[in-house]
Amino acid sequence: xxxxxxxxxxxxxxxxxxxxxxxxxxxxxxxxxxxxxxxxxxxxxxxxxxxxxxxxxxxxxxxxxxxxxxxxxxxxxxxxxxxxxxxxxxxxxxxxxxxxxxxxxxxxxxxxxxxxxxxxxxxxxxxxxxxxxxxxxxxxxxxxxxxxxxxxxxxxxxxxxxxxxxxxxxxxxxxxxxxxxxxxxxxxxxxxxxxxxxxxxxxxxxxxxxxxxxxxxxxxxxxxxxxxxxxxxxxxxx
Length: 238
Known about the structure:
43% helix, two-stranded antiparallel sheet, mainly alpha
């Protein structure tokens, strides 16, 4: 009889439409919806990188593209007029390291989310990037430092907050990925231990003192020898 371990990466026999995700079971339709949402979130970050790098005439014109000498951060950070970190954002606006880290973050987060690997790293990096952008826009403020209306539409549930929640959710369901499916498939094909039931009991050997099957009988001790010393039948010494 074959003994198999309990696994959560396989569908139950009574519910073949269920898929194991992080120790819980969800429907295959929900798993596909999460995968579509993950890829869509990745494309948000990847598209921002592509548009700012090549100037695809959407948010960034070709003349201000990164490859043409434009700065991905100068226009945004230099225009910050709200929040407690205005001076800090003004000081780093357009610097080479700020541009590089910002663009690298957009590219890495987008690619990782679309590929479905290292989801926790992507989630932490994405939430950090969104938090910095949230402080730059600071939707809690009603007026700018000059006294003009800030134009915030929602002080709490803005798109930075919604994206951060979605990244956290994707990190919690990081097993709904192609690499995780391959890992689960390899795990399901691993050999399992086989045992025979009922066990076959062998008779004890004559003179066996250990009680184990096929145990060899121990030679009798020579009188006068200590329990911690062994005797040799071919000599007179203990």
